Amino acid sequence: MNILLITADQQRADCFGFEGRRVHTPHLDLLAARGTRFAACITPNVVCMPARASMLTGLLPLTHGTHDNGIDLDEAVGEAGWAGTLARAGWHTAFIGKAHFSSNHSAHATGRCENLKSAASFGDDWCGPYMGFTQVELVQLGHNHWLPDRPPGGMHYERWYHGDRLSDLKDALYRRHLGAPTNAAQTHDSALPQAWHNSEWVGNRTVELLRAQGRERRARGGSAARPFAAWVSFADPHHPFDAPAPWCWMHRPEDVDLPPQRTRDLERRPWWHRAALENTPQGGDRQVRESYSRIGPQNDAQLRRIIANTYGMVSLVDHQVGRILAALHDEGLADDTLVVYTADHGDWLGDHGLVLKGPMFYEGLLRVGLILRGPGVPAGRVVTDPVSTIDLAATFGDYCGVPVTQASHSRSLRPLVEGRGSRDHALTEWRLGPQRCGVALDLRGVRTREAKLTFEFGSRAGELYDLKQDPHEMHNLFDDPAARGLRDELMQRLLSRPQDFRDPLAQPVGPA
User: Tens digit of pLDDT for each residue in 199-226?
Assistant: First the structure.
């Protein structure tokens, strides 16, 4: 069995055509129609690095140690994840795109390939190994708020981007705004041609990887070819909202769907909601956290521009997925490959008057899409049991017949795909310091099929939503006596988490 994991960065679970939103995703819609999708999949953490580390290792963040952005994943723990396990069993393992297992920004060089201050020590011929992947082609940042770092910095995408000596032209085109000006936060229609965009580069490199696998398969007579396991990671639709032409024009702002509840109502929320939005971030990352990680209230016109541009970024990723799936078919690999599409986390995208992400575990941020297609995977099946992307490690081990022994918090999704068994809850957790939003929090959450509890262990405050009766999460039932039984049940589920916390936990070295 080959494994092809495709991920987006910051794509909500409802930002697919099959979910009913007005976003153009024909290839992902077809992937879901020909496979099985999980309608209640959550992320083990709502920011990039912890979520990705959990997907790789099969461990919750307080156990693998990367409990917030800016904390490098222990390389020994990373190498014991599904990629390293399959590599040691004979698979060719590859990573293409944005990894984010290590911090990009830091006061001092960390020695990691993803670190801006360390990249120059990795030569142009370096291609791994890294975190269990034997072939590595990285997009170091991917979000053009920071333009691609120039050599000798940057990694594979950045060095390709600058390799034709057109750096000034490309950077100027990215900065150019197409069409009417917008005052929507972090939003512009970019003039950077698609051919130079990192989503196109990730698509191109993945197609070439599959062609190389096809050539090896034909040269070795099919069955003797070495199987592969690849993680293909797109950096969009993460902010800034800067889709290139023509994708920035694919969805008209007046046609997009706005969230039904898009007003900040902090007076009815737990204390940390207001604190996270209004407190001053501490430490040297303050400017980044205030100007990049926070977006103030947006009116409907601004929000329409943000959503339309986000949809454009999603559609560009969908286009690349179509190219990748076509190459998989053309190379004769589709019948032997488990294809998985998901994201690291979502985005509030206007829900409750919020945009981006933070310590408020609303569904738009917590829930992610998860689609599986491949041998033995039923077509058109929708699973509503609560699961997590942490389950991918055990799932890959199951389908490949190679157990990922480290992945103690991960459970294979294969029984649910095949209509066997059930799940009752999935867990998420985030311990963050005052560097991010000016307040230290120890948040843990549990989601069942019909309810969700978030508990802040420092203050013993919480929020509880009946998702069946209150899908837009308007009524916090945590202190409601009538919901005491539901709260107690979910607290028991939350406390069932194994007490295998890493001690001591490292602290962030930078904002990302």
Answer: 999 999 999 999 999 999 999 886 668 9
